[in-house]
């Protein structure tokens, strides 16, 4: 069985006056929207529907298939109310239905507040229920219409991967890493998916589990190769490992229980975290395939436009297996759009008015990080606002971008790659060697084939933050920028801008400049970049000309 939809009324951000309905795909659902629109509440309701006794089957890391509501939402003192309602609609499929679901397939829940096992005591008196931060916010299944009147959850496997999975092992000293015995089939499938998604050549020799007392909920998954061990895995590798292991756990559960397998649901918060755009797309492909083949659902939240674009390419009315549920606040209340256009999603995420002529034809632009995207957006605003693009989220080094360009040119046919200015001084032969099979060519090379386009570099020859730091260091305290509204709002003058008292002393010149820029408010960063582009000797003309030329090439393939 699977969940077709759920409706929520009077819980957290959801209004008490009317139900808000969220449709789910039979296999995969991406829940997107700006912050504070109720996405986590949806995950909490979905995770609350069922669990599985550990004796029946467990996650490959030993966890039960169970989601505690407190993993996702805590009691909000004085604000969470009783009497909220949620309804989850189940429908049958090839797996059949579990027991004790109402005949109409709709299981209801009501919100309630329960006392803590050890209530908070102040002045020798326990706090009142609604004043105690230790009180428990719960969603209780309704007894009515169930064949056997009960407030118990369904016997149905659920599993949740929250942001605690991203707790970096490198920042704790109390981790424990151990190898586990895996079935050959599990390790082989993990190895294949892991290497393909991250485009890693090394063979995975073993898969280990990582725990930490500092992050009790985290159960990391790290690989051992010939080059490095479990604790040397990056945050992205660890994150991917946990997601792969969770999906493979449902597959293993089906193998264990056989015909008694009735599906299940895997919930992932911010699925794209720590993964570069291509890895996000490939992870979606893997999860969609394994969930469809095994017979469970995946529901994730995401803010990644590149991932939503990949998913939207497969969304259509004749495909009930896949949904994008987009959350918006309209006149103060939450609305959910099912499978909106990418143009509508991008406009809302960027807080822009939707262009009625907008479609899917905007080229994608891959860049190294947020600072580079900020510089590009400022140049775009000043020089080519008539050329809309889709900026791809993520932080990925220039060598990895070139590897991606070389190995996956067909998938990037509607894309441009713009590298940081300091990369432009790298040896041309070194760059060319990384693009031997690619449609991307060095800016000094002539574009000959119709599908070829130039690799682009942002203006300049040094790291962006270093150029900014040196420019403002030589400007005096009467510089016009300090009269800008955002600078005045944040009380920025020469002394506060250039103050480096808290800067770590063991950093080199480039890292000092990055530290200096990173800790500025976003509005101040934008003002610094725009003023620098307008008043410093930044050679933007050649970049603008080359960008327009290559934009016209790739828009045919977007």
UniProtKB/TrEMBL annotation:
**GO terms, molecular function:** ATP binding; ATP hydrolysis activity
User: Where does the AAA+ ATPase domain lie?
Assistant: 25-321
Q: Which Gene3D superfamilies match?
A: P-loop containing nucleotide triphosphate hydrolases (3.40.50.300)
Quote the SUPFAM superfamilies the UniProt record gives.
Answer: P-loop containing nucleoside triphosphate hydrolases (SSF52540)
Which InterPro entries does this UniProt record tie to the protein? AAA+_ATPase (IPR003593), ATPase_AAA_core (IPR003959), Bact_Antivir_Def_Nuclease (IPR051396), P-loop_NTPase (IPR027417)
Q: Return the protein name.
A: AAA+ ATPase domain-containing protein
According to the entry, what is the taxonomic lineage of the organism? Answer: Bacteria, Bacillati, Actinomycetota, Actinomycetes, Mycobacteriales
């Amino acid at each position: 069985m699977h969940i077709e939809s759920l409706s929520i009324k009077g819980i957290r951000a959801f209004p008490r006056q009317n139900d808000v309905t969220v449709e789910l795909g039979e296999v995969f659902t991406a829940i997107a929207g700006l912050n504070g629109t109720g996405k986590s509440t949806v995950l909490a309701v979905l995770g609350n529907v069922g669990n599985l006794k550990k004796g029946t089957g467990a996650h490959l890391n030993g966890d039960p298939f169970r989601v505690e509501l407190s993993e996702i939402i805590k009691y909000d003192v004085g604000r969470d109310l009783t009497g909220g309602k949620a309804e989850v609609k189940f429908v049958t499929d090839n797996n059949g239905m579990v027991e004790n679901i109402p005949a109409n397939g709709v299981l209801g829940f009501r919100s309630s507040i329960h006392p803590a096992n050890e209530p908070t005591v102040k002045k020798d008196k326990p706090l009142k229920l609604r004043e105690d931060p230790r009180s428990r916010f719960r969603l209780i299944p309704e007894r009515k219409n169930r064949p056997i009147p009960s407030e118990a959850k369904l016997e149905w496997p659920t599993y949740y991967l929250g942001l605690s999975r991203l707790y970096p092992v490198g920042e704790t000293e109390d981790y424990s890493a151990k190898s586990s015995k895996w079935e050959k089939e599990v390790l082989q499938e993990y190895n294949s998916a892991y290497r393909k998604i991250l485009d890693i050549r090394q063979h995975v020799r073993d898969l280990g589990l990582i725990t930490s007392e500092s992050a009790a909920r985290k159960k990391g998954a790290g690989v051992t190769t010939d080059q490095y061990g479990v604790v040397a895995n990056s945050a992205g590798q660890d994150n991917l490992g946990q997601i792969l292991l969770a999906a493979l756990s449902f597959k293993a559960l089906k193998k264990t229980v056989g015909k008694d397998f009735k599906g299940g649901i895997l919930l992932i918060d911010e699925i794209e975290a720590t993964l570069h755009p291509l890895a996000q797309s490939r992870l979606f492909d893997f999860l969609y395939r394994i969930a469809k083949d095994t017979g469970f659902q995946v529901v994730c939240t995401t803010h990644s436009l590149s991932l939503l674009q990949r998913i939207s390419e497969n969304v259509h009315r004749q495909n009930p297996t896949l949904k994008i549920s987009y959350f918006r606040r309209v006149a103060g209340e939450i609305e959910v759009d099912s499978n909106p256009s990418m143009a509508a999603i991008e406009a809302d995420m960027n807080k822009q008015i939707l262009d009625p002529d907008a479609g899917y034809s905007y080229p994608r632009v891959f860049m190294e990080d947020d600072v580079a995207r900020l510089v590009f957006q400022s140049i775009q605003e000043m020089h080519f606002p008539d050329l809309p693009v889709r900026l791809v989220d993520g932080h990925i080094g220039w060598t990895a971008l070139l590897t991606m360009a070389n190995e996956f040119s067909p998938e990037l046919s509607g894309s441009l790659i713009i590298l940081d200015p300091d990369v432009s001084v790298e040896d041309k032969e070194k760059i060319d060697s990384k693009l031997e099979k690619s449609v991307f060519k060095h800016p000094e090379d002539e574009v000959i084939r119709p599908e070829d386009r130039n690799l682009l570099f942002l203006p300049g020859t040094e790291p962006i933050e270093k150029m900014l730091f040196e420019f403002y260091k030589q400007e005096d305290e009467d510089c016009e920028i300090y009269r800008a509204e955002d600078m005045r709002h944040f009380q920025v003058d020469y002394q506060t801008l250039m103050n480096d008292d808290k800067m770590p002393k063991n950093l080199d010149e480039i890292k000092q400049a990055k530290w200096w820029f990173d800790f500025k408010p976003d509005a101040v960063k934008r003002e610094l970049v725009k003023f620098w582009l307008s008043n410093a000797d930044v050679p933007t003309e050649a970049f603008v000309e080359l960008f327009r030329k290559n934009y016209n090439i790739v828009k045919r393939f977007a």
